[in-house]
Design a protein that fits this description.
phosphatidylinositol binding, four-stranded antiparallel beta sheet, alpha+beta, C2_dom, 294 residues, PX_dom, PX_dom_sf, neurexin family protein binding
Length: 294
Amino acid sequence: MRFSGLPSNDEPLLSFSPRTYTLKQDGRIRDASIFTFQKRYSPEKHYTYVLRVHREGQSEAQFVSRTYDEFQELHSKLTILFALWKLPGFPNKMVLVRTHIKDVAARRKVELNNYVHNLLRSSTEVTQCDLVYTFFHPIGRDDKAEVFEGMSKPPEVPPISSRSGRVEGEVKLSVSYRNSTLFIMVMHIKGLVSDDGTDPNPYVKTYLLPDPQKTSKRKTKISRKTLNPTFNEMLVYSGYSKETLSQRELQLSVLSAESLRENCCLGGLTLSLKDFDLSRETVGWYKLTAVPSF
């Protein structure tokens, strides 16, 4: 069973696949499940779901990555092709305002895994159709995913940038130290940029590096709809000697809290604490630059 207007197997059934693939070409799928999900940054930030696919006659599993929209495209076309057949239900795309995007991706991983499980246990006509085999066939980007049994490639670290790619603005900080405690007062930010006609919802996040476990993360409150926020908020690091701090760097990021997408990075900076005289308070303006986020 095929769509009209697609007379040969050389023409794609799915928009993201260069051509059509069949059971005879690839070998029967014994089982498939979602192994993990990963953040991607090209062409824009999104999550992909990595499927582990086992086929008859193949000792090793294949791994393919698909987006939620690509799962939805498969389901929509199966619904057209098998209009009179009972197909598994597909997860709702609705995202509630203020829901964290990573939490949405984690929930969808479970829902999409159930969908795949039920789809591959549908009637033979459905499970062995070209649409299904095209969906599970590895394509060019899957060869670059470097996903292995039991582990996945660490996510790439995106550069901090505004939505337009420009980074502008300055942050006013107070740095002081007493009683084995480092105090970072985030005072003001001025001159942030916005290119889409809406003001950001900025907040500040800091780390003391090196910090492989990310235990030193601190955050300010969110300031709504402004390019020039005032925080006057103290971020505290207790239990550090001056000698230890002289080997640390303070990394600061300015981000915009977004309701329906990943938070947008607006700029950042890295300050070496050995350059500060911790015997007195230092107050100053520091220029935001494009630096890697942590």
